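Researcher: Here's the sequence for the chain we discussed earlier.
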Amino acid sequence: MDNGKKIALFCSSSGTISEKYNEAAREAVREICARGFTVVSGGTVKGTMGVVGDEVRNCGGRHIGILPHFMSYCQYPELDTTIWTGTMAERKEKMREGTSAVIALPGGIGTLDEVIEVHVLAKLGKYSGKVIALNVDGFYDPLKSLLDHYVNTGMMAPSDRDLMLFPGSVDDLAFILDKLDM
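Model: Thanks. This is the structure I predict for it:
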């Protein structure tokens, strides 16, 4: 059943990452589905996106995939809903639309682009959900350090830096999920 509660997951499309990151993705999906949220993802079979799709199916959850037309060749086959876009920019906009949170799982440059864009939108008051980087095994420590550097040099206000949360485990993430207003 679609209750309107959605969380966007940004994640790796690489098939060569450490299994610990994919296991954290599975655990995160289980926590998200257990709380009745629909998972919104990039909707492909590639890398962690495919892992996310498989775990949503295993949990009996709902899964919306957002893909630009040029990526139709790698669409996850068992999405509940597929939304097609013309560009990657439109994809990012559609992924965050109506979500209570965006969660960046460990990922590459695309994941970084996605979470940074939402952080900027939150700073500008154009995104009201939580901005979360799941810091599995310190994966996002360099990003935390960079944001702290921005604060220390006056490039960013501490309140803006605090708009991005860095839970260190799926248990910490679950605590945040329990606090989301719906």
